[in-house]
Amino acid sequence: MLLPLLFALQAQGPFAARADTVRPRHDALHYDISITVPDSGPKVALSVETRWRLTSREPVRVDLDSLFRISAVTVNGKPAKWERPGDRVLIPTGRKPGDTVTTRITYEGVPTDGLIIGVNVYGARTVFADNWPDRAHHWLASQDMPGDKATADFHVETGAGLSAIANGDLVKVDVLPGGRMRWHFRIAERIPVYTMVLAVGRFAAVRLPDAACAIKCVPVSVVTYPEDSAFAIDGPFRRAPEIVDLFSTLIGPFPYERLAHVESSTIFGGMENATAIFYTEKAYETKTLPERTVAHETAHQWFGDAVTEDDWHHVWLSESFATYGAALWAEHIGGVKGRAEEMKSDAQEVFKSPDTERPILDLRTADLKALLNTNTYPKGAWVLHSLRGLIGDSAFFSGLREYYRKYRDSTALTADFVRVMNKAAGQDLGWFFTQSLTQPGYPLLQVTWKYDGNLLTVDIEQLQKESWGLYRMPGLVLLIDGWPAKVNVDGRTTHVVIPHVAEVPRSIVVDPDGWWLTRTIVREGKAQ
Ligand SMILES: [Zn+2]
Q1: Measured in angstroms, how far is the CA atom of residue 77 from the centroid of ligand 1?
Q2: What is the distance in A from the centroid of ligand 1 to the CA of 323?
Q3: Distance 469 CA to ligand 1 centre (A)
Q4: Cα–Cα distance between 200 and 183 in angstroms, integer?
């Protein structure tokens, strides 16, 4: 059979390509992170123990900014030899593939990135980790890449009167001599290093009603600077538990034990750190933090955190899913109209962006931050939306649920998602993913109609530039005076004859329900 063979080749192509230049060497299983945050000044002291499963006889390679002064390196508790080429620490272990070893690196210094130590908008001292995409190694000795997920313990020592937050559950708090505190957090699920964070400062924490109790109750809290607590609770986070309810119902159980929404000094509008989402303090200061950002970041707990892109070039598996999550929330609160407004605003962003000259799956980009663009956010959300329109709600959501179930606490490539959706839809969707993810642009349709007798002739021409390629749009609906006609758009020109049309149409609306990302012109053809 020619078709399945072609599809098999395709699945091994860009959908499965790993374009990140650095691949995990060994499997980091667990990080035990101890950090001392001083009462003043930017110098921190850390000791990071990592348990590894070795995949070869190569040395363990740990990413760590070269500016830190390393005072000790051990393997299984014994002093070890090590080398330091640039921002890496290489530790030979003398063990075989399959062995488990534990390394510990003890170091101190002033982080220049990744851990932001300073004062917040109110002049109070704060410390926030801000890792995306590979900035964790500027403070955390780790294998700093999305393809290697691990569990973690955090021991954060702070000054008296300050609180600490990290991923997962607060296990205990020790009071140390002089009133200093040591906060122990633990996350039992494997998460990517880019979401391993901590925060230190004076915070007000408010517990909202638990979410998703129909499945398993998820405690939800809002953690802010004390000055911003009222705004956060009454404003953007008012319905935060309901957002967790929605995605739990649509996609599957919330992946973690709890969720905190944390005000922070992140450089991003929001950063989806597992169990502890960070939002920029600027949006609290200006009171402009929208609920759609809360929905987007919350959706990331499922897509990005629990199911992580194995390679940065497949980041649409994280960002497009979160962006479509915001549209699903808009649909939940505002119905089809609410969703349509959200998708329209996403489409407007695509139409005005030069990013669309590159495909969503852009394996050529070397600058990781450049991967956060209009393609991986609104355009990718449109890929999911069109897929839903194409295969229907039932297949779409059962596919999403299966994809989450299968790759939860693990990593995935686009090929994995394609495989799951093909199965859920019972059809080969390779053509759809190929045009949506590997072609630039979108279809620009010129719809020309002519009425003659009771025959309506419609020519749909794809006017987009050659470099964007042609798009297939099966089942595109034309609403003719309120009556729907389905057209299979395929090739540069699609010619359709609709018989038994009683009178000259007064209106023809292309894709009235808005399932396709397309710009259209409808015109009456001149009689020959
Ligand atoms: Zn995002």
Answers
A1: 39
A2: 7
A3: 29
A4: 10
Give the per-residue pLDDT at 453. Answer: 86
Q: At what angle do helices 414-425 and 430-438 cross, to 10 degrees?
A: 140
Quote the strand ranges of 213-363, DSSP E: 218-224, 259-264, 270-271, 276-280, 307-309
* 3-state percent helix, strand, coil for the chain, nearest multiple of 5: 30, 35, 35
CA of 151 to the centre of ligand 1 (A): 22
* pLDDT of amino acid 365: 87
- Write the CB contacts of 499 (distance below 8 Å, at least 6 apart in sequence): 454, 455
* pLDDT attached to residue 306: 98
pLDDT digit string, tens, across residues 426-484:
999 999 999 999 999 999 999 999 999 899 999 999 999 999 999 999 999 999 999 99
Ligand 1 mean position to 268 CA, how many Å? 9
Cα separations in angstroms, 52 against 100, 101, 114: 5, 5, 23
Q: What is the distance in A from the centroid of ligand 1 to the CA of 299?
A: 9
Between CA 161 and CA 201 the distance in angstroms is 9
pTM above threshold 0.85: yes
pLDDT of residue 22: 79
Nearest Cα residue to 215 out of 168, 255, 249: 249
CB atoms within 10 A of CB 423: 13
- Ligand 1 mean position, distance from CA 318 (Å): 7
Q: Measure 165 CA to ligand 1 centroid, in angstroms.
A: 21
Q: From ligand 1's centre to the CA of 47, what distance in Å?
A: 30
Ligand 1 centroid, distance to 273 Cα (angstroms)? 10
For residue 514, report the distance from its CA to the centre of ligand 1, in Å: 23
CB of 152 within 8 A of CB of 78? no
- Which H or E run includes 209? strand 204-211
| pLDDT at 232 (0 to 100) | 98
What spacing in Å lies between the alpha carbon of 316 and ligand 1's midpoint? 9
Residues 6 or more apart from 119 whose CB is under 8 A from it? 125, 126
Which amino acid does the sequence have at 89?
V
How many angstroms separate the alpha carbon of residue 371 from the centre of ligand 1? 12
The pLDDT value recorded for residue 8 is 45
How far, in Å, from the CA of 154 to the mean position of ligand 1? 24
Answer positive or negative: Cα dihedral of 399, 402, 407, 409. positive
Q: Which residues of the chain have pLDDT under 70?
A: 1-12, 527-528
User: 433 CA distance to ligand 1 centroid (A)?
Assistant: 21
| Ligand 1 centre distance from Cα of residue 212 (Å) | 22
Four-CA torsion 105, 109, 112, 115, nearest 10 degrees:
60
207 Cα to the center of ligand 1, angstroms: 24
**Burial of 486 from C-beta contacts in 10 A (0-12 / 13-18 / 19+):** exposed
What percentage of the chain has pLDDT greater than the value 90?
91
Give the distance (Å) from ligand 1 centre to CA of residue 483: 39
- Taking CA atoms, 390 is separated from 36, 419, 474, 512, in Å, by 53, 16, 8, 14
